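Hey, resending since the last one bounced:
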Amino acid sequence: MVREIRKIGDPVLRRKAKKVEKVTRETQKLIDDMLQTMRESHGMGLAAPQVGVSQRVVVVEVEQKEESSSASSTITYALVNPEVVRQSDETWQDQEGCLSIPGWRGEVERPLHVSVKALDRSGNRVKLELDGWLARATLHEIDHLDGVLFIDKLVAPDRVWRVKEGEEEKEAA
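The C-alpha cells again:
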C-alpha cells in the first residue's frame, strides 16, 4: 500500500523515532508499504517517520554501476533500529534531496564509508559495510529517525536550489 509522505512542517519529522522492540508482521507490512511508497515516489530511501510512523525503520534502494563493466545492479535493504558503528574520516560533498521536501536540493557533506548494524526484515542481526551512495542514502534515512532533515546539514544553507518537475532524479527521501 502506498502511504502518504509527510512534508516539512509535519511535527513527526522532527521527533526522535521509537526503537522497535520486536520485528513483527506489522513491522514487515510497514517495510513493504515503505518500499512501495518510495518506489512510487521515485526515491532512493524512506524512513518510517516520513509516512507518519514514529519507529526506527528505514528502507534504501540504490542502483550501482559495476566498476569493471557498464552493467548496474539495484541494492535494496530494510533496516530496523539501525545504528552507525563506524564512519570514515574521508568525506564527500554532493547534492541531496528529500521526499519530504520535494523539488529542493542542497550540498551535504557525509562520510564516504560507514558500518551500520541493525535488524533485517526477519529480525536477524546484520552488519553492513556501505560506501558511496549507499552510505549517503542510509545516513540520510538514519538522520530522519533522529528528527534531522538534510537542510539541517547543508554545507551552504544559503545555496539551495529548486529542481523543475520532470527533471528530478531519485531523491534520497
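The longest strand covers residues 72-87.

Sorry for the duplicate.
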